[in-house]
Amino acid sequence: MTRPDPRPISFNLFEMACVGHISHGLWVHPDNTRDRFNDIDFWTSQARLLEDGLFDAVFLADVIGTYDGYRGGAETALREAVQIPNNDPLVIIPAMAAVTKHLGFAATFSTTYEPPFAFARRASTLDHLTRGRFGWNVVTSYLPNAARNFGLEDEVEHDTRYAYAEEYMDVVYKLWEGSWDDDAVVADRAGHVYTDPAKVRYIDHVGPRHRVAGPHLSQPSPQRTPVLFQAGSSGAGRAFGARHAEAIFVGGHDLASYRDVITDVRRQAVENGRAAEDVKAYAMAVIIVGRTEIEAQRKADEFALLSRAEGYLAHAGGGGIDLAAYPPHMRMADVLEAEARAGRDHRNRTRFYRADGTVADALHEITRFDRPPFVAIGTPTQVVDRIEEWVARTGLDGFNLRQFLTPGTAEDFIELVVPELQRRGLYRISYEDGTLRERLFGQGRARLPGSHPAARFRGGANLGGSRTAADDLVPTGAVAG
Amino acid sequence: MTRPDPRPISFNLFEMACVGHISHGLWVHPDNTRDRFNDIDFWTSQARLLEDGLFDAVFLADVIGTYDGYRGGAETALREAVQIPNNDPLVIIPAMAAVTKHLGFAATFSTTYEPPFAFARRASTLDHLTRGRFGWNVVTSYLPNAARNFGLEDEVEHDTRYAYAEEYMDVVYKLWEGSWDDDAVVADRAGHVYTDPAKVRYIDHVGPRHRVAGPHLSQPSPQRTPVLFQAGSSGAGRAFGARHAEAIFVGGHDLASYRDVITDVRRQAVENGRAAEDVKAYAMAVIIVGRTEIEAQRKADEFALLSRAEGYLAHAGGGGIDLAAYPPHMRMADVLEAEARAGRDHRNRTRFYRADGTVADALHEITRFDRPPFVAIGTPTQVVDRIEEWVARTGLDGFNLRQFLTPGTAEDFIELVVPELQRRGLYRISYEDGTLRERLFGQGRARLPGSHPAARFRGGANLGGSRTAADDLVPTGAVAG
After folding, report:
1. What share of chain A is helix, strand, coil (3-state, %, to 5)?
2. Tell me: the pLDDT tens digits for B315-336?
3. Is A473 on the interface with B (CB under 8 A)?
4. B344 and B269 in a common domain
5. Can you tell me the ipTM of this complex?
6. Are residues A252 and A292 in the same domain?
């Protein structure tokens, strides 16, 4: 098939600082280097590979607790290395930034537990160090164990988490966009003035959950607010994405459900005064490519053989339903009722099941390694045909490439798929200079557009009082020369 | 002079991710590159320089608020770039780690505001990425503005901060030392077992300020607990150092006061069951070296000329007394009384003044750029003579080299002082392999000794219940194959 107006499709590598991210069991493959994830060379060599392959970015997932809902505990998650052990993605990015010039980095960070003032500075530092290549995947935390790692008894309720997240965004926007004017730093050596204090403001945020005085400690970074990624298909999740996200990571059961989510979020974005095209949409992609169909299928079979159902069950049970506690023939609708009677509410959780199916159906759904609907197994031509079809029919802008082997999945993609994409005008030939935001939205747009809610704090508007640092000078009894 | 038993003296570069750390005004010098501190190349080139110069480590100070006590606000701190703008040191280290193999890194992080669970994982990640070259400078936060950035009205009272810090250390020790056994990770590909769940524990910490379930998310890093640095000369500060610190950063008015602090902390350490030699002692060093005395003095004069009294006053006023509010002839004892009447208690603050002096004396003390008693200005021979004298007479193990010019101060030291130190057997000729802790305490000691309080949690001892991840397996209704 052909598309009338070919435009580049974005590809990020989907990563996580752990052994088993979402391809459970695959770490044992002799060509897989996942068990070297603690080593800095694992990350720097991967970053170089992705930059050689002209990827948009590496997208780092994260979790701040253990999946201990399956069979009553963390045993399976540990044995199968289901996202534990894991490391902090924020401190891995600078190592990759030190050996690259263009590759982007998006890291997952939760708005639920850590103080926004510290995160805002950490993010600004990352945006400085990467010269504007930093993105933030905004999440709220749902794992019960994560809550218990941060002083709470149990997870924060879903809609409350989104209310927390709204306030969190306000705080960090005020710090990133409102606290320092663009021309605050003058660095005037002759005049002995580094910063003009009249152009730096306290934010004086006072909200139900956070009180933050400011000023922000970092001077404005290339992008100020990092590129905002977000995933979340619930009602509150979509509304949040339509308000804040510059790129949404979409899930769904089939092509139509992807299209519907994307259409809905963009419609809501327009209602919020934003442009539909200001919300890019990404899907996870399973791409298993070979020089021949048989070679590709052989790889897929090998991956399926190594996949571990126990790993997927532990993963699914982390914040959700412990399917091991119910008989296989039970209807999921009845399981949900039983869970509700036990005081567990799953209404707003990410669904991996159909309510009209059975426990066995849900188990099957969970343990298919090719669970995301976008699956392309075949020759480069077949793979790119399918990519084109999905992009045309869903409104997707790009994909997060799921890894089966590290670095094999990315190497295969770069060797076999990229040339076919380039032949069709769907992939860059070389990087252009600029920030990650400019890569997504075009040259000259290093900063958020004026229609984004973060922009309402610019120039000190909508801050509590808008005190500048020059406002607080008081008469003085003694000044030393 | 000669010393009977020459042993290497440690040198760290004293750094901070900002324009003006402690040499206020110097950033305007034409050879100073401090205003490039946002750039990753500033840090990677500096790391390479220090590794070429065989430094022990780069020691990164930090502050999480603004010095807004002088003349009622932050104006002066901003204009003079007194530690604002600044960036997060934790995310700068991985960039330096990516381009070095031996240089150590110590970063300042406060126990007062951020959740210990998140910090513990961040620190473990840094220890993994640096292959055991990470140190933590443990501080409590005293800046009032920092408190207001983290939800509080004013700073946490001094002794309360130290009580918080004690609990904080317990939490992170439990995570670093107690949660995972050394042989928990088996990475058995044939058996499909990454981690043995029986060797991973919840920590179930319940304390007055923190509740943390665990397990720790990172697997054991080369050093587990990073090398623990600490500064603090108050009573509570010394007691904390004697209990926890592997290296104390000492201040004082003269050689004798350094010696007394070091002797006192080591005596207290022994009372705690630790070895005196398990507490290394560092002082800040002003070293201005030239090929001739005249050349060195010319540099010192140039630095003095560029030093900015206003910068030092803003710095001193950050958490302390606004000296600008009092007449120069007033006695400091009377100032303290006036402050106490106004509800401001400075008894436990770091002192930059003598109570028997006047405000003018305190101003003089503050604005001397050579305030730390260890000052060596002269030829390499003169500088090293003075270093040897201080080490012999105080019990110091090393120095944090204060920068006047970046990279000039380190370059001068490497070019002129290092060869003289090496000639006398006081400085390494090449790096040995190993972790930062082994560099300080000898090969084979990558981990804390058994006498350190962190060690009491090893093997799951002294944890709340010592649940392992294998203890929570429950009977199950359905397990998918």
Report:
1. 40, 15, 45
2. 877 656 777 788 888 888 888 8
3. yes
4. no
5. 0.94
6. yes
